[in-house]
User: Fold this.
Amino acid sequence: MTIILETRNLSYSYGDGTPALKGVSISLQEGKKVALVGPNGAGKSTLMLMFNGILRPSEGEVLFRGRSMMYDAASLRSIRRAVGMVFQNSDDQLFAPTVYQDVAFGPSNLGYGAEKVKRYVGYALQYVGLIGYERRPPHHLSGGEKKRVAIAGILAMEPEVIILDEPTSNLDPASSEEIMEMLDELNLGGKTLIISTHDVDLAYRWADEVILMKDGGVMRRGTGQEVFGDANLIRDTRLKLPLVVDLCHELAGRG
Assistant:
């Protein structure tokens, strides 16, 4: 399989010297669904911000398709076209007066002509089910609709990788399910997807690969069964077991 994103000995510290990542070395395969799980402060969001150049490592490097990431303006524009980021709070990402202008911001910034921008915005809004919303103000939308607009804004730039920080945060169960089904469709279409989540049940059933993080490092990576099969490790990272795994352990304990 082709490696699309890779980190080598990646470390990052905040301005006050507090370490957020410590020597993280991972490689992610193209076309996979990856879930980063771990408690607050584990380094999940920091790692995701490294993947598209929003943060620059204190040590180590990030590679996209085998090439080390550069941090000049042209290189960052290129990497952010290929690796799109959807933030946890959609209000942090939506700022234009209308849905159309918000979704059009990315492709316009890439220098696309008006007709191409219009075509890409139409495609993206159709994909997320928001045709007819073009003139609506984003702040009048529901939480699920805002999340869809944020995803559309990334899709309009035709990324190869889509990163989503807590994609179901603050959404009702129905909206959460719709968002995850949309991500499955994108993955079937060839997109590589990376999410961070506290929802162990979601990570267990959805991800091809789970990366368990704690205190800025990677504790374990593998399939959901491989990672969540170690009950002591999961408890050590202050997470709960997925319901199906917990049930299996309970039944085994009762013979």
Notes: The mean pLDDT is 92. Strands lie at 3-13, 19-29, 33-37, 59-64, 67-68, 83-86, 161-165, 192-197, 209-214, 217-222. The first helix runs from residue 44 to 51.
